[in-house]
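Listing S7. Sequence submitted for prediction.
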Amino acid sequence: MGENEFAKLVFRISAMKAQIYANLQKEYRTGTDLSVYVQLFGRLAEDYTKLLALHRENWMKINKPFGFERIEARYHATIGRLFSEKALLEAYGKGEISTIEELEYTPVYGENRGFYYEKFAFPGI
């Protein structure tokens, strides 16, 4: 693979994740068909698998193998989660489940962004 393949994959993955983040919950709540996301999660898993292979190849050229197992575990956790979410969307599309709990949740902005920690750690602020 070419030298720029790693960067291309990172950008493609980022674009797909941005598309999912921006639209999935909104389309779920409006009752839109989510089959496009089933395909998107599958493509993301494939791209992460390719990215892992490239990352391993580059790592072995520059570093000794020690330490890569931690990076590899993160990739595999992400890939596994993508397959889980893909299966969840498929089950929802087939009517096997009526809701997707993860998409029912309304995020509270500011949550887990350090604001509350700051208040706790420095109560005088």
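Caption to Listing S7: primary sequence and predicted structure tokens for the chain studied. Residues 9 and 47 are 7 Å apart (CA to CA). Residues 5-121 form a domain with the Four Helix Bundle (Hemerythrin (Met), subunit A) fold (CATH 1.20.120.670).
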